[in-house]
Amino acid sequence: MDAHRAAQLLAAERERIEQHLQLLRGEMPADTIIADTDQGDLAYDMNERERDASRITELAEELRALERAEARLAEGGYGLSIESGKPISDARLERLPAAERTADEQRLWERSGR
Predict the structure, then answer these.
(1) Nearest C-alpha neighbor of 99 from the set 91, 18, 19
(2) How many angstroms separate the CA atoms of 86 and 14, rounded?
(3) Residue 80's beta-bridge partner residues?
(4) Among the four given CATH numbers 3.90.190.20, 3.40.50.10610, 1.10.569.10, 1.20.120.910, the one describing domain 3-111
(5) For residue 21, what are the contacts with CB-CB under 8 A and spacing of at least 6?
(6) Could you give the residue ranges of the DSSP H alpha helices within 76-102?
(7) Rounded CA gap, 92 and 101, in Å?
(8) Which of 51, 60, 112, 62 minimizes the C-alpha distance to 83?
(9) 62-95: pLDDT as tens digits
């Protein structure tokens, strides 16, 4: 994949991640509880906050992976596996611009428990 296309993909991915983070951080409810709130509503709100916090953590990790991909692009190693140095397919990079491994390597890495 050429560097220009890679930069476009990474920029679009950064924008997506940052927009999601802003949305989640802006929608997270304040830690105030209204006295007449139903217990079911409170449980639902707590569950929603936990899910939002979990998603924020996931997006923060995606952002760190994106930053590593941007560094590889700047250093000339973008599109090469961090495990083997083998090329990552353009189709995979189009879907996952911050991919660090080939699809086969990623499956093995995930099975090994990371």
Answers:
(1) 91
(2) 25
(3) 87
(4) 1.20.120.910
(5) 56, 59, 60, 63
(6) 90-95
(7) 10
(8) 112
(9) 999 999 999 999 999 999 999 999 999 999 999 9
